[in-house]
Structures are given as structure tokens and as C-alpha cells.
Amino acid sequence: MRETARSVALQALLQVEENEGYSNIVIDKALRAAGLDARDGALASSIFYGVLERRLTLDYYLAQCLKSPGKKLDPLVQAALRCGAYQILYLDRVPDSAAVNETVALVKAGKKLSAAGLVNGVLRSLSRRKGSLTLPEGDSPKALSVRYSVPEELILLWRKSYGKSFTARLLESFQKRPALYLRLNPLRTTKDDLAAALEGQGCRIKPLGGLPWGAALEGSGSPVALPQFQEGLFHVQDLSAQLACQLVGAKPGERVCDCCAAPGGKSFTLAEDMENTGELYAFDLYKGRVGLIQQGAERLGLSCILAQRRDGTKPYEDLPRMDRVLCDAPCSGYGVLRRKPEIRYKSLESAKELPELQLSLLENAAGLVRPGGLLVYSTCTLHPAENSGVAQRFLAAHPEFAPEAIRLAGVERCLDEPEHMLTMTPFSGASDGFFAACFRRKEG
Q: Of the residues 304, 327, 380, 438, which is catalytic?
């Protein structure tokens, strides 16, 4: 049977729900395998990401059209209902009749013939009633959870940690589509030259204040398919990650280390800041991911990058002291819900072991820093135990380090926190939820 936009979206959703990969990787692979044209590919992506972003909202609407809303549904049937509901409620260009009929066909193709009648009835009921169905009002965690499709426990964590006003602004900002950001390679191009080249591809770049080589890309499908990407004129890197690299402040001729480097975006930016001089050590635990760093460095012409397989949970041996070290630790990812929407459904329980791992990585990274050198700790999450909690524990246990004040042009402080820590958000001048802390090793 030929793959369709809807069948690709459905199968990709089932794969994500079975924890078989990040959403962006899953859908990109599925689209390549299906060979859909641009129009169908866009529809598949729209349904896929739309369902992930609005799963709790969709389930709330569907429950009002189910005869037995508490009854557990087959995973394929439930995912198909969400796909159909998303099209009916949020895709104006898709006729309701097409959304219903195509969803029923998907269920039949998935050999769930007995559920075809249920799916048909529920979606037709939703189509008839969509003008009168409403979402819960008010600012209770339950109401916010349904409206913004964020689990209550995560909303409660943010309220307790950051306050009601911050949480409200955060939920609202996570509803908006993020821009696609690039980091230009100053060794191979200029903003004007790249802008002119991309214009010929139907794209344009918008410069970013405070980041001389950062830009937002508009009008592109997949940026990695552009010839300018293959020529090494830029790499894709989120604004928050570029800001973290700015905190590191790598200079030409220095010795710098990116301890948790794969797939390599921050290493590439740091090496470009160093004008491809000095040494940039880039570590990862897995051989395949080290290979990704090496491939990217070669594409960008960055010969100063030394990519190696290293276990950051163990002390680093046989390495020189570094001028600057970045420890961008693995984390729960609650700051990047706009880019990886499935992360919002990960339980807080699943993240409880992370602070110990992060502290271990940070302490071993600290062992690489020379006297007078800088250590930067960062995550892409909004979870105090992984952020300020780790930073505070590290500083308390390591008197050889002193807090280093953080100042970033264009980024506002949205929380009352020590000057050496900074929580970034989409509404404070960054693009995602991000955290950084800076420490300076004392002389002598």
C-alpha cells in the first residue's frame, strides 16, 4: 500500500509514543522513506507535530464525543483519533469529511476493522459539535494543562519554582512556533554573501542583535538540503545555544573543551570564534556521535576540532589544562518543548536521577580548567534541581572556583537569581528555555 501523508504521520506518532526516538529524527526519517512530495510532506509534518503539541487538548475534546471516555483504546486507534481530531479542529484547509474518511481508512489499513465504526462516529460527532465545544477556563493547573497540553505536574513544578506569572508567560510562549536559527561560518562567508546566495534558493536570513554571526532563516524547507549547507557556509544552531557559546567567549589560539559535544553545534561555533586556531576538544561517550562531530567539522573546514570518545562521568586523564570548558549536560529537556513537543509528556520521575549525573559531569569538566580559566555549565531544561541546584552544589563543594557574573546583550533577567546564573526563556530574549552558570577557577 502506498504511503500517504496521514499514514506517515500516524506511524511516526506511534513510534514516538513507544519511545523510539526524538520527534524531529523520527519524522525526518519517515518522510525520507516514504518519498512524499513537498505538499504531502508538509501535511504529514503538520499533523505529526500538531498532535504531539496538542495531545492533551485533543484528548479532552475527544472524551466529550466518546460513549465510554474512560475506556482504554488501542494505541493505533487512539493515535488515529487524535490525527483526525487535529485536522477537524485546527486544519481549516482540510475538509472535515476528508479528515473523517481518511482516518477511518487508516484504521482499516491497520487491521483494526472492529474500531472503524467507533472512529467514524466519534469524528463525525466532533465535526458536528466543534462549534459548541469549549475548553476549561481559569488558571487552575488542570485547566491550564488542557488548554496548553502540558501535564499538570510540570505546571505545578514551574509554579512552585518560578511563580504563577512566569509560568503563564512560559505556557503562552511555548504555544508559538519557534524560528529556525543558523550560525554563519565566518571563515567561509559573510552575511551579505550568504544572504545573496540563499535568496536564489527562495530563502532569506534575518540578522540577530548581539550575535554577529547568528541569523534566523525564513522560507526554507530543510536547511540541510540547501547547497550552502553542504558547502559549509553555516550550521543549524538554536539561538539559546548560540548564547551559551557567547558566554564561553572562546578566543583565537586558546585551548577550549566542549565536554558533551555531540552532535557538535556548540563545538563548531566555538571553533569559529577561535578562527580555527588553537585547539577545540570535543568529547562524547559514543563513537557514532563522535563521528557526527568529525563530519560536521570537515564540512565546515574546522581543522582545530579534536573530536574524541570520552566518558564524562570519569576523571579526564592525559589531557592539558584548558582556558575555557563548556559542560552542556544531558538534561530532561523541559525548555525545548517547542522543538521536541513529546518531551512535555515525560514524567518528572524520569528525570530524578539526572542531577547526580550532571554534577558528576560538571565536576570532571572542572578538573580540566586551568587556574584563571572559565567553566560554563548549561542545560536546555527548566527544572531547578538540574539547574541552580547543580550549580549551587558544585560551588559549595569546590572552593577553588568563584562565581563569574553573566551578562548577555539582548537577554533580560526574568528571575531573581545570582549573577553567575541565568535562566533564559522565549520571552526574555532567547528562543527556548535554557540555563547557564559560570565559574572562574581561582589563581594559585
A: 380
